[in-house]
Fold each of these.
Amino acid sequence: MNTATECLLRMVDEQHALEDYQGGVPRWCTGCGDNAILTAVQRLCRDENLHPEKTVFVSGIGCSSRFPHYMRTYGFHGIHGRALPLAEGVKMARPDLHVFVNTGDGDCCSIGAAHWIHAVRYNMNMTLMLHDNQVYGLTKKQASPTSPIGTRTNTSPRGSYLEALNPLTVTLGVQNVSFVAQVVDWIPELLFDVVKAAFHHKGFSFIRIIQRCPEWLPHMHEPWLHDPGRVLLLHHAKALQLSSGISMLYRTQLEHDPGDIHRAREVASGTDPIPVGILYRNPDVPCYEDTRHAGRLRTAAELRTGLEQEFDKYTVWPEDRVPAPADA
Amino acid sequence: MTATLDSTQQSQIAFHLAGRLPDAERPQQPAAAACPALLAGRRELPALRYDFPVVLASGERFVRPLSAIIDEVIHAAGTELQDHGPLTHHLLRLEREIRSLLAAGEHGTLASVWDGAARLLVAGGDAEVEASLDRARRALKADGDLVDCDRSLPGAFAGRAWHVVQEAKSARLAADLRRLIIGLTNILGADRAQSRGGRSPERLRASLGQTYESVFDFDALSRVLSTQAHGGLAPPRRERIEGVLAVLRAQRFVHAPSDDDAHTPRGYGFEFTSCTDALTAYRERLPRARELARAVAVAELEVRGEYRDGVHDALFGASADDDFGRDTLALLPDYFVSVPMARVHGEETDSLMELLSAGVPAKVLVQADDLLEESTVARDGHFAVGMRARQLASMALGLADVFVMQAPASLLYQMREAVRRGMAFDGPALFSVFSGASGGTTLPPFLVAAAALESRAFPAFTFDPSAGPNWASRFDLSANPQTDRDWPSYEIAYEDDGHRLAREQVEFTFVDFVAADVRHASHLAPVKRAAWNDRMVPVHEYLRGTPDAGRIPFVSVVTDGDVLYRAVTDDRLVRAARRCREAWHSLQELGGIHNSHAERLLAREATAMAAAAAAAPTAVPATAPAAMPASAPAGEAAAPAAEERDPDLPYIETMRCTTCNECTQVNTKMFAYNENKQAYIKDPDAGTFAQLVEAAESCQVSIIHPGKPRNPGEPGLAELLKRAAPFA
């Protein structure tokens, strides 16, 4: 509210170490890309000194959705495809919390697709991480909407029949989209930078994280993993600025203005090389929770009176206890 | 000067030096209606469209000129018409009529004056006019007080700006107080609900309602629940919260309605007409203000659940007159004082100085109606032009942390943003405004105020300490005309003796400003064209040269039925003009125009450069060095030097580690995570070469390099070295 109070708060602010954000021991397979995402997020929490009691991770179902268990913050392991409605409810009731959503390609792009589209349109201030390993891993290898055509799985033994859905172009096609980024789990520095930029964006930040599944699709990303030239790094003065180390290693680069949505859609359509960085950012899109804010706090008494008036409209009164009509 | 003087010139020089004309040449009528030549064309103000009158309303656009509103109405009412012509014509007539009414002393809201003017126009019986005005009246959306540029303008204008800023500020504070009160009440409410009392059979019954009360045994329920009841808030905390709540509820600085409106205390007033009264009120309220600031800080901590007794008790327990909560004090409403310059003396001056220098959040408007006061020390016609207004402004400038604005009323509309900025400034602000309503002239106040600006008698400037760290960003002189000149220069056109169009460039000096004031007519002697001669020079030229007894300074005035005269100026007035120019020069220097320090530095550097160029004629051109670094590849220059590493030692490209646990599962003593949870080789001797190779092979991103075996006796080395080769 004012700087003096902020100073007082900072005086007793506890600094947290990365370990303070570690919850249970991850049950993910060794070598799984989820670990890289978990590390990046724990680093973010430490660097931004997020108070664990002011931070919440919401997830649906799938490997990725075990995420809240491994964070020592608030968490909500929801039901399949419904991470976003839950997160929106949390944000609406507690706008002071930092809300993160961890979801997978099956959870978000298949059963949860309707919620995903509308969450983009609502543009509530939260960060969504789409852990996209292009397969249903928890249920042992079924094709997901993002599996590339021809992917052999238990449900598509002769190879999947449909072209993979591109979560980036879908998101960029929805009204009110305000932040879209893509990153790969095997470049931890950029993963962290993108998660950080998404956290600082006010609005619905959508990050698609292309992630390896060493158990079910062990060779899927090897060509990209071992050829840095097949990753297209997006950089711009208004977006990511690359460190010299990264810049030396990944030579395929593109200067991309994150304010240009048409160019963003074009870049997002490319799959080889994989575009990595911030595709689109528009801080001026209003957040749903702000537009719906009543603008005035209500006291407990006002809430009680208001609720009772609403209930009274629908109450069926016993004949002998019908109240006198309200003056209003 | 070699030519001999004729008698006309002699008497003109005599007037210039002594301020008196020979009796025979004294005009029968004093030059009462003289008007500076430049203003002559603008005397009939109501017929002209300009910034005034203005309509003062609330909200973002708190001030709008009548002409802009009329334009808007023409646009809105005329969209359905094929021909805008008649409507435009009628509305412009209405606008003129409104101006005339105001000039005649009418006042009120825009709607009321509009209706009065419309009645006058319709009285002519023209049906077309009536239809146009009806249509326009329906399209008129704006309303508010209609104020012309007169004595009442500065107070109304600044008052409105203050009000707009304060409204927003008070609303913010009220919302915060309300939020804190609700937060604290909720803490107490939650505590009550969980306490033993809150779980009594009566409370439980009341909370369930009547429908199902018969099916519950509230005594049993209460017994069960009471075993879980917690001890409640610690008494010191409860006391603290209740104390803070009481302060927040009883405050009188802003209107923050509570649940119980009947007990909302009456708010303080913040508008004053004397600095002394404002200062007294501020002093009286200061303890309450500090108490509120402290309560707000404690409440904020409590509501966020961040109050730590051990840390914060010591802070808030300090003595009552500490400086804590200064930021919260800044959230309280500011004081507004509107005081006429004539009253700023004695105790009032002391109070004003104290308000400004002590950082009291007061916005003080000092309104001067007359700049041409004679000095109280020497009543010999020594002009003390706007001396006190200038003194006030320069004193406030000297304080360095006070927002200062000086402007004639005619410029207020154009400087509305500056006025608003001053009102929103986080500290004291002084607005020194010249209204132009001096009474010494027949010209309308707007023209007098504008003339004061043009003649540098009352220059406009703002000093905004919040705009930056230095004078260049804080001090703004740009509202003045032709800031780089001594006097602004304009062209006048007139008809000469032969009825031909003649043009002349004239500069508007301080003498022109005085020429419009009848009280000082004796300092000027208008001379007809027949008596004009070569020794006469315009005042601005006269001032530029060295004093010369042979030259006669004059200004061009229009008098005697629109005839152009040259008015010979007496020496006192010329001296006053010179002082006025000096004051303007000082302001120019502050504003970075013809700054003597800068010019001196520039001259020195220019000399040094010339000397350097002369000494080394074959030196490399200055642009060459700048081009050199650009030719080096930027990427390579920025790349860090490669680390010196022993090729035999195993290592991990830690930056690229994806925390997949592969290596740490092989050997936790050999592989470990750093503070960013990325792997590095903690101890190369804590495991075997076989483990290093195994880790390198299983690493998903191939960033583990096994190096050379540490133990030459390790079994199967040949095979291991072969496997390690791809990871070298």
Note: The mean pLDDT of chain A is 91.
Amino acid sequence: MNEPLRNLSDLDRVIHEPARLLLVALLSSVESADFLFLLKESGLTKGNLSVHLSRLEEAGYLRVEKTFRGKIPHTEFRLTPKGKTAFEEYRKSLGPIFEKKKGRG
Amino acid sequence: MDSQIESAMKRGRGYWFVDGFTEILAGILFILLGGITLLSGIVPPSSFLSQFFSLAASAAVVKLVGLILAVLGLWWLKDRFTYPRTGFVREKGVPGTQLLVFLRNAVLIAIVPVVGLIIPLFLVPAVRGAIFSMPVWFPPIVGIFWGALCILLGEWTALRRFRLLGMVVMLAGISVGAWQLALGLPNVPAEALQANVLSPLPEALWAPLEESLSRMLAGVGLLTLLSGIGFAVSGLVTFLRYRKENPTPYREAE
């Protein structure tokens, strides 16, 4: 197997799924965000969004925080250090794949 | 694919500006500051209004109170209008080391042109004339600096309107400078410029210096006012579009 293909097979499959990749990318640029923001920005259904968030939480990439804003209960999602590292690694591993492709093209 | 990831990240960074409130409030603050600065240069020096404007313009407390009120107003508006419609985002704080690097760069950016101007003033008498043409070159420099900041913000958040605003602010700065040039520069006797810089300022230079400074201040005031109008209009358009797209707070049934 050549180098770019090996890189492709080494990609983190939890993050590689398009919807989860979008959620992680959104959360990587902010401290935390609530369910409504992720729902509006991702365009996913509520059920789908919940499933993907749970999957990220199970992988240890996401932390769910129940807080209060005033008297209203509020749930925020933030990437864990493990999630941030996984996302950075994922972006790094994408680099050589696309560079090789450009070089050939 | 990486550009799509980058685009999603920029959406998160630009969320703070999604509703236009920041621009509206910044615009109002700029209009007030620009208006006060401009009027303080226009009204007769001995009038009551002049005393009021010069006091208000120089009192840092007015600016500070305005800024605090704007920030509090922004939080209040977002809490009641934006977050129930499109969700809440906690923006990333700036780490201490990054803040120090930013402050160091800001100080360097501020110091280099000042030092670059002061040293030739001592060494080359002909350059001293630059002080008397400040109304022409100072507002364009300020406009280009503010505009560049706007364009950088546009790049950081992928919001095209900030790039456009940046260009408008730059153009406004250059236009103010061109307008001042069209009005003509203060008349400076060439021999007075040759005087030793360490000796007291020659009397012949007092009036042109005063005129240069007050016209420069009026120019910066006008630029601030124009930039404020630009920000307020941009914010209002953004707000109206946001309200049209999100007319009511989000409900479970949606």
Note: The interface with chain A takes residues 1-2, 5, 8-13, 15, 79, 83, 86-93, 250 of chain B (CB under 8 Å).
